[in-house]
Design goal:
The complex is a heterotrimer. Chain A is mostly helical. Chain A contains ten helices and one strand; from the N terminus they run H-H-H-H-H-H-E-H-H-H-H. Chain A has a domain of about 100 residues. Chain C folds into four domains: about 270 residues, Alpha-Beta Plaits (2-Layer Sandwich), CATH 3.30.70; about 180 residues, Rossmann fold; about 160 residues, Dimethylsulfoxide Reductase, domain 2; about 130 residues, Barwin-like endoglucanases. Chain C is globular and about 90 Å long.
């Protein structure tokens, strides 16, 4: 009886049987990697803005406090985006002719609004509250990164739920004295391992991980 | 339920018709697959089944487009046809595993001629069952959240939920059944490879046969694997439907929350499973002239199993009623009264008729040897077992604790379409199976030939002949 | 809200063997609902409403289907793991408005005008969009609570079907075009002093508008101003004039009252009922040591929540009611004629009279607006005889600015119209063509006016017949003022600029007065500035805007004496059935027929939705061989109407109730064609009841959509009733003896632990909480078909059970929100952990995690969970987006939802407290249902805090948990109903079971 298969088929079949397993797990691994990649999370991706606003220049350069523009950060969920008027308080005096600032002036003239692109954009079913995080000693920098070193703002972290939980499950690793929350270059004067737990006690930090803490 | 099994089956009358030689067995079974001219009946059957598949696709499309609202489910009846059919199909699947695994380990020779398509039936039934749990969720595209996998949400599924147990139980069951069925097929695939005329078919069967040459080493490994799988599958027969029954038993709903559920579900599963095997076996042996292989002996034994498991199921019904009364809980008592006399009372009494009264006929050997009667009873039992799930799911939910929330459940055409669709899918697969694969295990049938006194030409077969026993011996 | 345009899903009929006799067969869901997308830009204050046509063209529907498909395929992409978010914009302010903190709501005081007086409101505003209405605690009519109508008014504001354009004979026109023609017409009138000019308004309670009209009538001396509201005070007015010689309004002071007799006065319902409910509930609050509580007797022909709340209720058709009233009057020493009365009714009347006499000066007799002037007059006499006047009753001038006989005025107007003497008819809101007495022939006469101008919020029957339709402003988007029942003046201030450039009545009248550019704000402000005595008006104005009312503006109590002897009552020879007309609990007089929230809100006693029905007593129905849903041909005084009946336990026999406000022919996609129009039976006499109704059964069935189909408690211990004074006599369920029997370890609640107690003795079943919950939590409406399918979405429902004799049963009401069980059956069965337990004991529902197995709902003994079987939430109609609460996630198709104890309110307060480094106070958090409840029946707070109101209630002897024998350990618990019946009548109903 004639051969219906070439001898090599034996090897092929063996490889395919075992290869299949690796292929499946490989595919799953790939999917999870893609899902955490900056392509999906957009972490570290500089966002184009209608006006090339540089946090680095304004914060590190001019030493303007976060709250000068993000006025409601200590009292509300939403940190607040400066009104055109806020920009113009300075820029009606300096750089009044700078072409770069024309969109701001235009908006001010027409009392239109500047459509900024959100850099830190949570899904609408996640309710984040800036005020409580500041009150409980989580610094701006802990989530937003070294904003004072960002020419154009980008998202420092993935903002994935697992990232939120990493702190909510172990707040002692990230908490700092409430006085230091706006400090971009904060370094704990004592090792975090002992300072952290102490602050967690002092500030009654719960590190809530129940669903309704963020989802309503 | 092994206690309920007619142990005398292996002894007594032969389980293969007289005058068969090794060659005739092989010829007769393999020619069904290899013969050029396909019986027109097969085409007609497949066509009808394909219509069913069309209905299935339409129903699924419509469902995904509009959402679950196209079904009859509501508040308070959150589960309807989807769960009823899921449980029904899973139940039907059981006979396959039982016949192939447990009867194998119990050396019930008579199983040989029916195990192959019983296993196939299991496989297809589980496929049909699998359609429902996926589609009955509100957002099927997120159903994968039931699987425990490392995700960016940093969350695990909720391991206390019976639905999660279902995922594991059913998927394991499906996998093992598939392996078991396929491993069992290998020697026959090889036979087909050798007997196929065209090169294409030789190649196809050859690939599927994984290079089986019937060598001693092959047989030796085959038996080990088959025995191990049989050992693996046996607990599954019990576990799967036990877990499925937890979906109900773990809840707080009167009519669901009962400890009787697991045994009663398993028995019910075998009950319906064997009924389905009969429903399929009777026409097939007629159409493909397999009376010699699927003998009266087989039908008789299966009828006995049906009778036995049927009695267990009815014991379950009795216990439900007793508990309801004995518990003294007004909710339980109302539940059983509502089942019998409420708006869905007709379904309860229909169920009692199908599962308790009609099967009693099987006490008479005359009925058991009357093919037509057997077929009719098998159909009735299938209907009865579907009704059982309907009664459990719907009549328990539609009137639970607060009368203010009581309601009714009316299935829509889309509920029916999906149900009929899965039946179509089942037969579609079955038709393909009986056309392209040997529906009866050729080599195992050949081992039965010596019973009619003919010496064995081939060595491999000799080992195969003792395969069952050696598998048995190795069982841990 | 849902615009139920049929879709392909309708084609699937529900047939087959599943029907049973007791339940009517249902048909499959078919409504084309609006669909979800999960985005609500709460920071986008530029979300200007785009006019959106709710009447979907087929194209529109197709587009939606496409979007829906896109939606699910996007979700499928999500399954493929790559959920990359699209870019989102933040629109920064040009200049930040002061006091506004993005994401934080502001509250403004305003008022909702009613013919019966304004209801003071505080309205929550998110980034300039009013989203939720609350009561104004400083306002005497509100006292911090509201009714269901006020709650639903915010939906009315955003209704996409509102009139949006000036129309001339139906064609689109412009405001300026209108001004040109209108001023020309007025110019023509000026010569004749306005002889052909007629102005038709609803009852005016706005002093500014009144002043404007008076001034206008000076300019046009021959012009005529007519007031017409269907549910007017004409008969009460006539009664007062007859008895006291002057028109006065009666205000009960329930806090000083021990016994109240209501002669078919539904004084606990509607906008006027809000304050009454508060006082009534307070006077009946049953606690451990309470010895007595206010006793309410109620004689009524129909069924009402007031009747349901009564200790002793006598169902009596109008003729019997009159006889009972006469006998009671006679018994308390008022000289009047006796009328034939059945012995058992005599017994009842005598017992009541005795009780009234026993409480001289501490009792009151109240009469419904619908009753005849004679009964009103008689009641005045009785109240005088019982020394109630000045003690439990206050007489003041009526709330309307100009008290007139509206019926007579309207008759006069129609006469003018028929005489063809009306040149220019200006209808300032209201819908007279729909709700005028049928035999007046206003509909026909209306078009005899040469030019007809209608100012209206919606396209309605009146605008249909008008030459000009000017879109009106909603009270939440325009300046005005209004008197409350007691004369308190509220400034109606807008929460948002007119969405569709509507005009207010003030502005239109100003146009007529020759000031086309006058703004309502200046008009109102000027009016009060003129009346302001001391110089500093500015601060007074500011304060009144802030408080929502002008300080020190109240009616003085009028001291009145009986001018005439009590009238003689007469009962017409009753042949055939008697009948009564009533305003509807949802549609009111038709004004709210187009409001989806109210339409889907189960009527308090019938539990019907999306319908009105001819209510008929049990025995009467039996005699006529009628069952609920049977369509009958109803003939009264020559008018014929085909309508379905609803057999109503407790309804007076030989009597029919015909709810008004339905059968609208022009009420948008929601209201048009819903129910039947009972106005065909209204007569120029203004009678709200009569005799000689003939029923003829037609071989036809109407399919109702009741939210509750089973009305018997099946002897289950669900709504407890205990005798007052023995509130601790409840027996503990044996199952509870076992104590803790759970497989899983109990939760530890170390910090705060939230719980709710609902006082069943206070709850009147007014439905305010149901709509408040819907408004607060953006709960979608599902439409009639889906209610029939048993898929209504209300998170908070009010269960209604009947107990005892079906012809006169006790009505038991029980609000049922989520129980937030400590051992929640739903939590353990969810395979994905979408419903979980919070450290405070909240049973959390996480929509975005839910895959929709519905196992939780099956396993919930209270069946409080609600599932989005279809895409119910409308996320395309722009104007509806504005209404949604930005602090609540909008739920998509295939997701479970339920009461969350208003977790968004909890979070707001809790975060606020913890920011200050303290834990939230025991009573600090207020849920939507609690805040709105006029009866203060709902209490929420920290049960771990012994000082909190809720923990105090939990220690009451009559405190119990629903189905607590299941060991679910519910956090929502109840206080049993207390009963203190009149011993003389006790063996009837009303005592503890």
């Amino acid at each position: 009886m004639a051969q219906i298969f070439h001898p090599s088929t034996n090897t092929l079949s063996k490889v395919s049987i075992f290869g299949g397993v690796f292929f499946v797990f490989g595919a799953l691994w790939l999917a999870s990697e893609i899902n955490r990649s900056s392509y999906v999370t957009q972490a570290g991706v500089v966002r184009a803005q209608p006006v090339a606003f540089g946090h680095k220049h304004h914060v590190a350069g001019l030493g303007i406090d976060c709250r000068y523009c993000h006025t409601s950060v200590e009292e509300a969920a939403f940190a607040g985006i400066p009104s055109t008027k806020t920009c113009m308080t300075c820029h009606s005096q300096i750089w009044t002719e700078a072409p770069m600032l024309e969109p701001v002036r235009a908006a001010f003239r027409e009392d239109a609004s500047i459509p900024w692109t959100r850099v830190h954009d949570l899904p609408d079913f996640a309710y984040f509250d800036h005020s409580i995080h500041l009150a409980k000693g989580i610094g701006c920098q802990s989530c937003h990164g070294q904003v004072d070193q960002m020419p154009l703002a980008w998202r420092e972290h993935s903002l994935n739920m697992e990232w939120c939980l990493s702190c909510h499950r172990e707040p002692e690793k990230y908490v700092r004295p409430p006085s230091e929350v706006f400090n971009m270059n904060y370094v704990p004067e004592r090792p975090q391992s002992e300072l952290g737990p102490e602050l967690v006690r002092q500030l009654h930090i719960e590190g809530r991980t129940n669903c309704s803490a963020c989802h309503r | 339920m092994s206690s309920a099994k007619p142990t005398g089956a292996a002894a007594g009358a032969p389980v293969i018709g007289p005058g068969h030689s090794l060659a005739s067995v092989t010829d007769q079974i393999s020619k069904i697959v290899l013969s050029r001219q396909t019986p027109t009946g097969w085409f007609i059957g497949l066509g009808v089944a394909m219509l069913g598949v069309g209905v299935l696709i339409t129903a699924v499309g419509w469902l995904l487009w509009w959402g679950l609202g196209v079904w009859g489910i509501n508040q308070p009846v959150g589960w309807g046809f989807a769960i009823i059919n899921f449980v029904w199909w899973i139940g039907i699947g059981h006979a396959g595993t039982l016949i192939s695994a447990i009867l194998l380990l119990l050396k019930q020779e008579w199983r040989t001629s029916i195990n192959r398509f019983a296993e196939a039936m299991t496989l297809f039934a589980v496929m049909c069952a699998g359609v429902f749990p996926l589609l009955h969720v509100g957002r099927p595209w997120l159903a994968y959240w039931l699987l425990p996998y490392p995700n960016t949400m940093g969350m695990w599924p909720q391991f206390r939920s019976p639905l999660l147990w279902d995922v594991f139980a059913v998927s394991t069951y499906a996998t093992v059944s598939a392996l078991f069925w396929y491993v069992g097929l290998i020697p026959d695939l090889a036979t087909l490879r050798d007997r196929a005329k065209s090169l294409v078919w030789k190649r196809i069967y050859g690939a599927l046969a994984l290079g089986w040459r019937g060598a001693a080493r092959h047989w030796e490994r085959y038996e080990t694997a088959y025995g191990l799988l049989a050992g693996l599958a046996t607990p599954l027969v019990v576990s799967v439907h036990t877990v499925v029954s937890f979906d109900f038993a773990v809840s707080v709903i009167p009519g669901w929350h009962a400890t009787i559920m697991p045994p009663y579900f398993v028995a019910g599963a075998i009950f319906s499973g064997f009924a389905m095997v009969l429903t399929l076996a009777i026409p097939i042996r007629r159409i493909f002239k397999l009376e010699d292989f699927i003998t009266m002996k087989h039908l008789d034994n299966m009828a006995k199993v049906i009778l036995a498991t049927g009695m267990i199921v009815c014991y379950g019904y009795a216990m439900e009623a007793f508990f309801a009364w004995y518990s003294g809980s007004p909710y339980e008592r109302y539940m059983i009264m509502n089942r019998m006399l409420g708006p869905y009372g007709w379904s309860y009494w229909a169920l009692i008729t199908c599962n308790l009264l009609v099967p009693q006929l099987l006490w008479s050997s005359a009925v058991r040897r009357n093919i037509a009667a057997l077929f009719a009873i098998a159909i009735v039992v299938n209907v009865g077992m579907w009704l059982e799930r309907f009664v459990i799911v719907v009549t328990s939910l539609h009137r639970d604790y607060l009368p203010s929330s009581w309601g009714m459940y009316y299935p829509t055409v889309w509920d029916w379409a999906l149900y009929l669709g899965t039946i179509g899918l089942f037969f579609f697969l079955l038709f393909l199976f009986i056309r392209f694969l040997p529906m009866i295990s050729i080599f195992e049938m050949r081992t039965l030939v010596p019973a009619t006194g003919e010496e064995l030409p081939k060595k491999g077969l000799h080992i195969a002949a003792s395969g069952g026993s050696s598998g048995e011996a190795r069982r841990p | 809200m849902s615009h139920t345009t049929p879709s392909a899903a309708n084609d699937a009929p529900r047939t087959g063997p599943w029907r049973s006799l007791e339940e009517r067969a249902a048909r499959v869901a078919g409504s084309e609902f609006e669909h979800s997308h999960a985005h609500e830009h709460e920071h986008d204050q530029h979300a200007a409403p785009r006019p959106s046509n709710a009447l979907l063209s087929s194209v529109e529907v197709a587009r939606r289907d496409f979007l829906r498909l896109m939606g699910s395929s996007l979700a499928a992409a999500g399954a493929a793991a790559c959920t990359r978010q699209p870019d989102e914009r933040i629109h920064a302010y040009g200049a930040s408005p002061e006091a506004l903190i993005p994401g934080k709501p502001l509250y403004f005081a305003t008022a909702m005008p009613w013919a019966s007086g304004a209801l003071g409101l505080l309205v929550e505003s998110h980034m300039g969009r009013p989203t939720k209405v609350e009561g104004n605690p400083d306002h005497p009519a509100s006292l911090g609570a509201t009714d269901a109508f006020a709650q639903a008014s915010v939906l009315e504001l955003y209704d996409p079907t509102r009139a949006q354009l000036v129309r001339r004979n139906g064609a689109i026109s412009t405001w300026s075009a209108f001004l040109d023609e209108f001023s020309a017409l007025l110019e023509a009138q000026r010569a004749s002093g306005g002889a052909g000019l007629h102005i038709l308004t609803p009852t005016v309670v706005s002093p500014t508008l009144h002043a404007q009209l008076v001034a206008l009538l000076k300019a046009y001396p021959s012009a005529v101003w007519t007031q017409w509201s269907a549910h007017n005070r004409d008969r009460a007015r006539a009664g007062a004039l007859a008895a006291l010689g002057g028109d006065v309004a009666v205000h009960p002071d329930l806090s000083r009252t021990k016994v109240v007799l209501s002669l078919d006065d539904d004084f606990l319902a509607g906008p006027g009922g809000v304050r009454n409910m508060r006082a009534f509930a307070a006077a009946r609050r049953a606690r451990r040591d309470t010895q007595s509580m206010l006793r309410l007797y109620c004689v009524e022909s129909s069924v009402s929540i007031t009747g349901a709340a009564a200790d002793h209720r006598l169902p009596a058709r109008p003729s019997v009611l009159a006889a009972v009233a006469a006998r009671i009057a006679a018994k308390v020493g008022v000289a009047t004629n006796a009328l034939p009365l059945a012995p058992e009714h005599e017994r009842w009347a005598d017992a009541v009279a005795a009780d009234l006499l026993a409480h001289r000066g501490e009792c009151a007799v109240l009469v419904g607006l619908e009753q005849s002037p004679e009964i009103h007059a008689l009641a005045h006499a009785v109240n005088h005889a019982l020394g109630a006047v000045g003690q439990t009753l206050r007489y003041t001038e009526p709330v309307e600015c100009a008290s007139v006989d509206q019926g007579a005025e309207l008759r006069a107007l129609v006469g003018e119209l028929q005489g063809g003497r009306v040149e220019l008819l200006v209808v300032l809101e209201g819908n007279p063509v729909y709700d005028a007495p049928a035999d007046l022939g206003l509909r026909e006469a209306f078009t005899k006016a040469r030019v007809r101008v209608a100012l209206s919020l919606f396209d309605n029957e009146t605008t249909q017949l008008s030459n000009w339709h000017v879109p009106a402003t909603h009270f939440l988007e325009s300046w005005s003022d209004a008197r409350a029942f007691d004369g308190t003046i509220s400034i109606v201030q807008p929460l948002i600029a007119p969405l569709y450039g509507g005009k207010s009545a003030h502005e239109l009248v100003a146009v007529m007065a020759g000031a086309p550019n006058a703004k309502a704000y200046e008009l109102v402000r000027a009016h009060w500035q003129a009346q302001h005595e001391d110089d500093d008006f500015e601060s007074a104005w500011k304060r009144s805007l802030h408080d929502g009312l002008l300080a020190g503006k109240r009616f003085f109590a009028r001291s009145v004496a009986m001018a005439n002897a009590a009238p003689k009552l007469s009962t017409p020879a009753a042949e055939g059935l008697e009948w009564v007309l009533r305003t509807d609990d949802s549609a009111y007089d038709g004004r709210f027929a187009a409001n989806a929230w109210l339409q889907e809100c189960p009527r308090p006693l019938t539990k019907l939705t999306w319908d009105n029905a001819v209510l008929i007593g049990v025995a009467t129905a039996e005699r006529a061989g009628l069952s609920s849903g049977d369509v009958v041909a109803l003939t009264i005084d020559g008018s014929r109407l085909e309508a379905p009946v609803w057999v109503t336990p407790g309804h007076a026999e030989d009597c029919l109730t015909l709810p008004l406000g339905y059968g609208r022919t022009t009420a948008g996609p929601i209201g048009t064609g819903v129910g039947f129009d009972a106005y065909v039976f209204t007569r120029r006499s203004g009678a709200w009841s009569g005799v000689g109704a003939k029923l003829e059964r037609l071989e036809r069935k109407h399919e109702f959509a009741p939210a509750q189909e089973h009305h018997d408690m099946e002897r289950r211990d669900l709504v407890r009733t205990l005798p007052l004074g023995a509130l601790d006599s409840a027996k503990v369920h044996p199952a509870l003896a076992h104590g803790e029997t759970s497989l899983y370890p109990p939760h530890a609640y170390n910090g705060v632990a939230f719980g709710m107690v609902i006082d069943l003795n206070s709850c009147i079943g007014c439905n305010a909480c149901v709509i408040a919950c819907q408004s607060e939590n953006s709960i979608p409406v599902v439409g009639k078909e889906e209610v029939i399918n048993g898929r209504e979405m209300h998170w908070l429902r009010i269960d209604r059970y009947y107990e005892g004799d079906p012809s006169d049963p006790r009505v038991l009401l029980q609000p049922v929100p989520c129980m937030h069980c400590e051992a929640a059956p739903c939590e353990v069965v969810c395979p994905v952990g979408a419903t979980t337990h919070s450290p405070e004991g909240l049973n959390e529902m996480t929509y975005n995690r839910c895959v929709g197995t519905r196992y939780c709902s099956n396993n919930c003994p209270y069946k409080v969970r609600r599932f989005n079987f279809l895409a119910y939430a409308d996320l395309e109609t722009e104007s509806l987006k504005l209404q949604r609460n930005p602090d609540v996630t909008v739920r998509t198709r295939g997701v479970m939802e339920k009461c969350t104890y208003c977790v968004q309110r909890i979070q707001e307060k809790r975060i606020g407290a913890r920011r200050e480094g303290r834990e939230v106070g025991g009573d600090e958090i207020v849920t939507a249902c609690q805040q709105v409840c006029p009866a203060q029946a709902i209490t929420f707070g920290d049960i771990n805090n012994p000082q909190s109101a809720v923990s105090k209630l939990r220690s009451e002897p009559h405190h119990y948990g629903l189905l607590e024998e299941l060991n679910t350990k519910p956090r929502t618990t109840y206080l049993a109903k207390a009963s203190a019946p009149n011993p003389q009548l006790a063996e009837g109903k009303g005592e503890a079971k």
